[in-house]
TrEMBL record:
Keyword terms, alphabetized: GTP-binding, Nucleotide-binding
Family the entry assigns: Belongs to the TRAFAC class TrmE-Era-EngA-EngB-Septin-like GTPase superfamily. AIG1/Toc34/Toc159-like paraseptin GTPase family. IAN subfamily.
Protein name, entry field: GTPase IMAP family member GIMD1
Source organism: Nyctiprogne leucopyga
InterPro entries on file: G_AIG1, GIMA/IAN/Toc, P-loop_NTPase
GO MF annotation list: GTP binding
Record-annotated AIG1-type G domain positions: 6-221
Domain of life of the source: Eukaryota
Length: 221
């Protein structure tokens, strides 16, 4: 917290190329801090931190209204078209320690596309990567952000129908993170009301975790 009337939450976005990590980060910040566009190769090659302006009307604690600040660390994808797993892991690990080493991380957001199936191999490698970054308590500090939910909706899937038809791989992942997931409509995420809804859900996850943070120290491994 910066002061008694303000709350700051620290987030990192993780995921594969073209899942919409950077776009999701921009949606959470209400800005265009991170480069995001369609590309035949991975767009993000280094970590970048963005910070929102003071957001009012979302947070209340002990009956008092607080201003909210959101800090988002954008990261290179894994797998990456130009970087090895070790390069991505070391870059992200170093950035987490640098930016959130003092205050800690509230949530890692694993970004997946709602309009594409999650395969077992992909899930295994992604979970392994997150474990290497966050350690054994990763499940407590990870939520799933399902982007392109508007495309799933266009295909006739409500949230309930989508989960009913989802692969066992995705359902197992959601279960492992205590069903902390959010559907993000890429068309509406720039709208103020939609952004507020997403932020409230993230705050609910953080509250369920008793406002704990994951402390990250730089590793020289």
């Amino acid at each position: 917290m910066a002061d008694s009337n303000e709350m700051t939450i620290n987030l990192v976005v993780l995921g594969r190329t073209q899942t919409g990590k950077s776009a999701a980060g921009n949606s959470l910040l209400g800005s265009s801090d991170f480069e995001s566009h369609c590309s035949p190769s991975s767009v993000t090659t280094r970590c970048s931190l963005g910070c929102s302006c003071r957001i009012l009307g979302i947070v209340r604690r002990n009956g008092c209204k607080l201003a909210l600040r959101v800090r988002v660390l954008d990261t290179p994808s894994y797998p990456h078209s130009g970087l090895s797993k070790e390069q991505v892991r070391d870059t992200v690990r170093s950035a987490l320690a640098h930016h959130f080493g003092e205050e800690g991380l509230h949530l890692a957001l694993l970004v997946l596309r709602a309009d594409l199936p999650l395969c077992p191999d992909e899930s295994h490698h992604t979970i392994q990567f997150i474990q290497e970054l966050l350690g054994p308590t990763w499940k407590d500090f990870t939520a799933v952000l399902l982007t392109h939910a508007d495309k799933a909706e266009e295909a006739g899937f409500s949230e309930e129908a989508y989960l009913h038809s989802a692969s066992s791989t995705l359902l197992s992942l959601l279960s492992s993170v205590q069903h902390k997931y959010i559907f993000l409509d890429n068309q509406k995420s720039i709208i103020k009301e939609e952004r507020a809804t997403v932020l409230r859900k993230l705050l609910d996850f953080i509250r369920q975790n008793n406002y704990q943070v994951l402390l990250l120290k730089h590793s020289k491994e």
